[in-house]
Amino acid sequence: MIKAFQDACGEAIYDYYKGKLSFEIIERDDGFFDVSGGPELYFSEPENWLIDQKKSMKYAHGKVLDIGAGAGRFSLYLQKKDFDVTAVDISPKAVETCRLRGVKKVFVMPIEKLDFQNKFDTVLLQGNNFGLMKNLRNAKKILKKLLKITNEKAVIIAQSADPHTTIDDDYILYQKNNVKNGRMPGQIKIRVRYKKLATGWFDFLYVSKSEMSEILKDTGWKINKIIDSEFASYTAIIKKI
User: Fold this and answer.
1) Burial (Cβ within 10 Å: 0-12, 13-18, ≥19) of residue 138
2) Residue range 52-71: mean pLDDT, rounded
3) Per-residue pLDDT tens for 79-110?
4) pLDDT above 90: percentage of residues in the chain
5) Strands 197-198 and 202-205
């Protein structure tokens, strides 16, 4: 479990829920800083979601596992439609916020340590959460684990953004250095800061559609449908082979 002083994301989410001004500063390992879409985005209502997020939710069925639940926006949406939803997040404060907002089943649990006896029919990796796969090797391990905790007709609803559409010179250079160093182009190493809190450094992965297909090879999963959206965003409906 992460320490309280590392829970920058969760603390920002919790403060926003309590009506306080909050934000997240994203620090990349090449010295680049930016302000994220932040806590407000994690509380957005369905009418304000991206097109691919709205359209992809109709593919949810049965028992749902929401990975990287944040403030619980997708879990709450499906709960209201009478889905049996289990939400997980690495952040204790995010999990606390989910509970306060009404998510019925939510646990502190990183994606690498998913531990469930029951099996799911839908796995949500919404809000760019395919990025939680971190890197190629880790992604294949997680996908094989998801194979074991899901039923035969399970789907993964996974959102990402194509990193190759960028026009930012710094990010293009960063991608070139990634490739030079044997990393995937959209594999970024970042940490999140909020007030005096800072997460540890971690990898977050953005992939193109073709890169996602390559990652899925030999994992028991394949892309069944792609839903495009604004900007570089897209959501893949991934099914078992």
Assistant:
1) middle
2) 98
3) 999 999 999 999 999 999 999 999 999 999 99
4) 95
5) unpaired
- Identify whether the C-beta of residue 156 lies closer than 8 Å to the C-beta of residue 146: yes
Residue 192 near residue 9, CB atoms below 8 Å: yes
Q: Of 17, 9, 236, nearest to 124 (Cα)? A: 236
Q: Which candidate, 81, 73, 14, places its Cα nearest to that of 49?
A: 73
H runs (alpha helix) in the chain? 8-17, 38-42, 51-56, 73-80, 92-101, 136-148, 169-180, 209-216
Instruction: Specify the DSSP element, H or E, that contains 85.
Output: strand 84-89
What pTM did the predictor assign? 0.97
Name every residue whose Cβ is closer than 8 Å to that of residue 80 and which is 6 or more positions away in sequence: none
Two structure tokens written together for 20: 């306080």
> What six digits make up the tokens of 182?
């044997």
Structural domains in the chain, CATH included, are 4-240 (3.40.50.150)
Q: What is the pLDDT of residues 25-39, one digit of tens each?
A: 999 999 999 998 778
Residues 87 and 34: their CA atoms lie apart, in Å, by 28
d(CA 156, CA 71): 20
Query: To 10 degrees, what angle do helices 92-101 and 8-17 make?
Result: 30
2: left (phi over 0), alpha (psi -120 to 50) or beta: beta
154, β-bridge pairs: none
Instruction: State whether the Cα torsion 158-56-163-108 is positive or negative.
Output: negative
